[in-house]
Fold this sequence. Notes:
The chain is α/β, with parallel strands linked by helices. The chain has helices at about 10-20, 60-75, 80-95, 100-110, 115-135, 175-185, 200-210, 225-235, 250-260, 285-295, 315-330, 350-365, 395-400, 415-425, 440-450, 480-485, and strands spanning about 25, 30, 40, 50-55, 150-160, 165, 190-195, 220, 240-245, 265-270, 275-280, 310, 365-370, 385-390, 405-410, 430-435, 455, 475, 490-495. A 7-stranded mixed beta sheet has the order 13-14-15-12-11-16-17, with helices on both faces. The chain has a 6-stranded mixed beta sheet with strand order 8-7-6-9-10-18, with helices on both faces.
Amino acid sequence: MSERYFDADVRDGAETFARTKHGILIGGEWRDAVSARVFETYNPATKSLLGVIPEAGAEDVELAVDAASRAFNEIWSKLPPSERQRLLWRLGDAVEAHADELAVLETLDNGKPVREARVIDIRNAIETLRYCAGWATKLTGETVPVSFPGEWHSFTVRQPFPVVGLIVPWNAPIMMAIAKLAPALAAGCCAILKPAELTSLTALRIGQLTQEVGFPPGVINILTGAGRGVGQAIVDHPGIEKISFTGSGAVGQQIISSAARTMKKVTLELGGKSAVVIMQDADLDKAIPSAARGIFGNAGQICNAGSRIYAHRSVYDRVLQGVADFAEKLVVGNGLLPSTQMGPLISQAQLERVCQYVALGRTDGASVVIGGNAEDETGYFMRPTVVAQTRQNMRIVQEEIFGPVVCVQRFDDNNALDDLAMLANATEYGLGAVLWTRDLSSAHRLANRMRAGTIRINGGGLDPALPFGGMKKSGWGRESGREGVEAFTETKSVIVAL
Length: 498
Ligand code: NAD
């Protein structure tokens, strides 16, 4: 982020946008939901009304599928790939030009510190758009020798699903929307995007930017509203051949069973309970703050948050104390204030859920070293929380909390890599894991044994070039990288008798 924070007029602009009359985007037009129903959206840091959003329903999905199919058949599938590339690149430039405004809008709607929104979410969105722009011209099939008698030319081509449904959660609204839109558009699909009902605003602003940079009408449609209403209608619609979903495991499972009726292809990015393993020889000056940021960033509302720390007994006390000190000093508050390091949780329900997990941990015999309580009732604020004396079978260790709560456990033998991997792998999730050690051999051997989609050794972040996704109950398929773009295509084999 640039050194300056943001100008007052940027905040005014974002608030004015939030208050304007919003529409849903179908076929290039902003319109009311057919039912004319609306719902309210609130700022989680102040509980104040931010704006009023259309509540789309099944009738709107019908219209959007129609618009997207027409756009695919008449325009999008006829454009050269270089044109898709150019449009995606231009959208990246537009997001960059409006980065401060989008970051403030995200903070108003989601609560995360504006610096975090700018440096992590918006930057990742820009990088993803540019990365995916490049793929538009590079998706190829291959020639395949066949063994029938005679002379043949046979090859494969990659073709897009004409219309795809993209359903995203509230924890990183703009980043998740772009993580799906960019590869879908690069692959050549037309899209129907549904933001989470708690955070619709940046998706709507992105919709305006797609129009400004020249995406043809109907290529990108945006429907706001409830998961059980418009979300379910997207999943059920036979004209949508692929769903890419990020969200909770429960909804993911529901989508799998609903999609069975229409045999839709489905990609699922679900929850996690990621382990952070800190070995005896780890560089603690780096490992401790990184582990703390890994759970308190975005107030722990991150799918691959490192919510379980396993520290070797020789470093356990320092790790526990270090993470607790970090938590104690963390400035919790309204994300628009420059001093804020951790914003509120997204809602009252989320705050209650997180507090209940802490209470459950206490009942099960864990000890809360620091935090554990809500604070400052102006918003949904929670103190960063460190829990010790947990056992592997406690629910607080096994289940995704999606809040700023970390369990710190000790392990005894640095060399028992199989046991250590078993400890780290012992949840139903498999999204991420982090290892801290200076021993290259242990690092690789342990990484090999981890059942997680992304392993970070001594640091690292997200990059649009690296496939991201979960093993076990953390999901189906991968986003990002070549695989993430190809997930929006199907392979067709063509055989020509010569
Ligand atoms: P959620 O599953 O409640 O909602 C996600 C989205 O699905 C929202 O847009 C919602 O409206 C929609 N939805 C809800 N019910 C639906 C239905 N029946 N049909 C279609 N759509 C429906 O999840 P959430 O509470 O918004 O997000 C938190 C969850 O998301 C956490 O479990 C977190 O781990 C997960 N998440 C995963 C990743 C990842 O990449 N793996 C990233 C971020 C969040």
